[in-house]
Each structure stands twice: as structure tokens, then as C-alpha cells.
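Quick start: what a row looks like.
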Amino acid sequence: MSIRLLAGRFADEWATDLGTFLEHIEGELEVAEQTTPTSIEDPERQRTIYACIDYSVKRLTPEQHRVLDATSLFQAPFLPQFVADALGDEEHTPLHLQNLLRLSLLEISAHTRTFQEGELVLLELHPMLRWYVQHRLPAPSAALLERYGEVYAQLARTAYDEYDHDSRLRYLVRQSLPDFEAALGCLPPAGRSSLAYHLAQPYQRLGLNRRALALYEQALEIDQDLGNVRNIALTQSAMADALRQQGKPQEAMALYEQALRTEQDLGDVREVAVTQHAMADVMARQGMPEEAMVLYEQALRTEQDLGDVHSVAATQSSMAHVLSQQGKLQEAMAQYKQALHIYQDLGDARGVGLTQSAMADVL
């Protein structure tokens, strides 16, 4: 790394011959080595790298310094766009990042990958440079920290909606977990609640259910403090979904019931239908088919009134499954056929395939 740093700086100082360059830097490197923080690992090597970093960083322009300061916030490999977003400067940041790469103060991460959707180029700081930044550069401003937090809040919202549709996004989310966690400490309460809520779902997808529930609990606590009733209901439903997937139906039902009461008080008929469907799923699995059918029918009426045909098909399929388990095969087939027509009209190949398979099981 020391050689790359000095080579990058020498290339930048084009008017200086190599002999003059080496003579000039020798004294500065010796001074910098004396200021190297104590380290228990390979102190001789670290003093050399530290001195080379110090020499290069001191010669950055104020604009380059500002970009380097921002990159030091990132805990894991990051997109160049993230730095521009944190600084609020999409015009100049890309050029400054290129200069930092040329000077070997930044690196193309070994985690860069190519996917079907295209290449995902990630940057990162060398661990020694991060060590240098911690000891020599000023602490980041509160405004920069909040903008850094907002970068990952936006990524979490995108992942919440698009996680299943883009392999680059899934990979980036996995790489970014340390920054998601760091970002939670950089946002005001409302932003922290939003990040925790949206981040919990990717954690669930990764099988990290305990952390997902902890994030939901964090979001719920903040929203209760803020008095954000609508968000409280959304989070309770999401927590119930997570508990249901973990095989904890009683805990899930308690949260669904709380969410349902709030949604009814708010007059949010769409969310009422979603929660009724989820509660019916739990009841059906708990051997309560009659109670489940009552809730399915209530949800179905609302979905039909709203013109939400995709939800109508999903509810009809769920009702058909319960009816088939009760031995009511003709009624089940009638529901499956209605759902199938909707999926075919929507061009939903997955819905068509699943429904046809379920119909075959009935036959």
C-alpha cells in the first residue's frame, strides 16, 4: 500500500523528477512516523503506511478532503453514488472519487460483482486508512451524519419494495448491513423508526429473525413515543407476520388484533382487509376453519369494493384451500376457478401456476 500511495502522489506531482520527489518526502515521512498511534500489530509496517497516508492526505485539495471525510463514514463497501448523496453534490463528487482512487486513498472493492442486471462497482477504504482517519481527521458534522443515515434509509425503503426483483440490490443489502446498523444512530427519531421498520424485512429474508423482531420493536417504541398511530398499526402487523413465520401463532394473533382495532378506528379499510386475511391464515392453520372463513369473507368483500383484483384472487385461493381441507371440493374448485381467471387476466404466471397446481391436488 505504501508503494501505491507514493506512486499515486508522484504521478500527481508531474513537474517533479523522481530523485527530487524522494529527497523531498524523506523528512516528512520521518516526522509522520513519529506521530503514528501505538499499535500492537506489526508496528514497523504500520508506521511506514501511516506516514505515506499522512503525506498523501496533507496534499489533498479542500474538496478532495471533504470527499475523503465522507467516505470514512462507510463501514462496508459502498456505491460511489452514496458518497454524492451524503454530500449533496452529484456534479463534483464523481471526479473527486476518481482522484482519490488514482491516489490509492480509495480502492475498488474485491466485493465488486457483475450480475444479469449489470455490474455493481463498490468502493472501500483500506483498513489502515480508516485507522488513520480515526486518529487524524476531525469528527464528521451532525448534518453529514444525518445525510449518511438518510442514504441507508432510502436503500432500506428500496429493498423493502424491490428485494425480490433485483439480484444486485439483494447483494448490496447484504454487503451494507454494517452501514444500516450505523445509520440507525445517525437519524432523528422519525427517520430511525422508518429505517428500522423497512430494514427488518431484509433481515427476515436473510433468516435473521431475532434481529428483525428487535428492529420492529425499536420502530414500535419510537412510534408510540411520537404518537404515530398509523405506523404503530403497520409495525404491529409486520411483527405479527414475523412471529407467524417463526411458528408463534398466539403471539402473532395478539398483535394482529391490536393492529386491527387501530385500523378500524382509523377507517383504513384496505389495511383492515390485509389484517383480516392474515388472521384468517393463522386460524386456518390452527384448525379453526369456520372462524377463518368468516374473516376471509370479510376481507374479500372489502377487496372487491376497492377493486383490488389481485388481493381478491389471493383471498379466493386461501378460501379454496380451507374448503378443500373441509372436504367441500366443489366449493373449493369454484373459488379456485375464479382466482385462476383473475390471474390469467392479470398475466400473473406465478399465480396461474400455483392455482393450477392446487386445483390438480383437489382433483
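That is the whole record. The longest helix spans residues 142-162. Confidence is low (pLDDT under 50) at residues 1-10.
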